[in-house]
Amino acid sequence: MSFKNSILKSVRHAAIFATVMMTSVAAFAHAHLESATPGINATVSGQPQAITLNFSADVMLMNVKLINAQGQAIPLTYQISNELKKSFQIPVSTLTTGKYTVQWSAMGKDGHNMNSDYSFSIQ
């Protein structure tokens, strides 16, 4: 292998390494749900007044649904806003005992869409 080919090979490896590192950093930069109230997989004894979603960075909350154990959607009064923030509080109506699933979708400042869900139970 010639000296020129060796240098080109080294440059190519460095470019691949830099691309992988930048992609990894970008993946970790996306916002995620840090905590919620009621807590993720929590069992609470009383009626929650609201669902609070706390994100790791400012996001626009695009949608949030509350689903009971029978798969029925519980009406929420959340309306989409263009406001970017880390914490959202969504009032809830009276809930009975049982398991509930919170489904949410959000968009980060970078336009990255994310969605997930979590469950909690009321005794």
From TrEMBL:
It comes from the Bacteria. InterPro entries: CopC_dom, Cu-Rt/internalin_Ig-like, Ig_E-set. It comes from Acinetobacter apis. One of its GO terms (cellular component) is periplasmic space. Residues 30-122 form the CopC domain. Residues 1-29 form the signal peptide. This is CopC domain-containing protein. Keywords: Copper, Signal. GO terms for molecular function: copper ion binding. GO terms for biological process: response to copper ion. Transmembrane segments: none annotated.
